[in-house]
Amino acid sequence: MHHKQDESVGQLIEEFLTARATRKPSPHTLEAYRRDLRAVAALVEGATPLPLDQVMISDLSPRVMRAAFARFAAPRAASSVHRAWSSWNSFFTFLVAEGVVAGNPMPAVGRPRAALPQPKPLRGEDTPEELLASVAREDGRQRDPWPERDVAVLALALCAGLRLSELLALRVSSLTGRAGERRVDVAGKGGRPRVVPVEPELDRVLAAYLDSRARRFGSRSVRPDSPLLVDRRGEPLRRGGLQYLVDSCYRRAGIGDRVPRGARLHALRHTFATRLAEDGASAAEIMRLLGHASLASSQTYIEVTAGQQRAAVRSNRTNRALAGLVPLSFDPAG
């Protein structure tokens, strides 16, 4: 055991953050760690916050941590408590690796399940169609219009549900299979590759894009190992360039107000998944096509869609007309 077990939690939190800083997290992430760690540590003795130089690491038994977390959790949302639990789990993992403590007490501290993020598709029934039609038209105001490329990017997100990182990783050779059985091989998140079928309409859009690219930059520019998506100079499209491209497509189509906040490209993927759910796809099918790690993420699309369908039925005027026909005291189960 290490002499550091006599150190205060305040000192060790700063050491942990210094070690984390070498991984180059955002300043926002480091600040969130600091806030979570300090807030829980201050509640170790009771509801009145303690100065952190008075809290010793050797005081933090599983029982003490459970009580501190219970105090921390009382006024807060489950998602905040879940994030703080993860911060403390990382902190104790660091302390075990450094030989400061013998074990991590966090598995003995209950944590709420984090709420799954809600889908954020484009708003409006025909918005995806409006977007594609608008971008497919040449816009005289653009310096160097390339509608074939722009439509291909939007179509891969809307009709194959690809993430930003997955789009950037595509090669020309990622499109495989013969006509009628085309597919795209996706290097998915967390090392989970998947295959997404390519319908003839999407296949034609991608072929038109590659044809326009060969005309712009020569046939050597579409070698199998070259990136599928390139910028207007023929260089591989990068993250910022792709985000800018999608934003400019929204602006040109005049639908910026229908894009959920914080979900620019992701709104297209969410639209793909939501439409799958609306058309009756199962959670397992959605999970396979979107490359989700768990069925729970896929299930949220089905639940949201079911809720929207119920709301639509609920607002049906004919349904409301039935209300006057049957007395409220009538029990259908009886």
UniProtKB/TrEMBL annotation:
User: What InterPro entries is this protein classified in?
Assistant: CB (IPR044068), DNA_brk_join_enz (IPR011010), Integrase-like_cat_sf (IPR013762), Integrase_catalytic (IPR002104), Integrase_recombinase_N (IPR010998), Integrase_SAM-like_N (IPR004107), Tyrosine_recombinase_XerCD (IPR050090)
Q: What is the official name of this protein in its record?
A: Site-specific recombinase XerD
Q: Which domain of life is it from?
A: Bacteria
**Residues in domain Core-binding (CB)?**
7-96
The GO molecular function terms of this record are:
DNA binding
Say which species the protein is native to: Micromonospora palomenae
Against Gene3D superfamilies, the record matches this protein to: 1.10.150.130, Intergrase catalytic core
Q: Which PANTHER family match?
A: PHAGE INTEGRASE-RELATED, TYROSINE RECOMBINASE XERC
Domain Tyr recombinase, which positions? Answer: 117-314
Keyword vocabulary terms for this entry? DNA integration, DNA recombination, DNA-binding
List the GO biological process terms.
Answer: DNA integration; DNA recombination
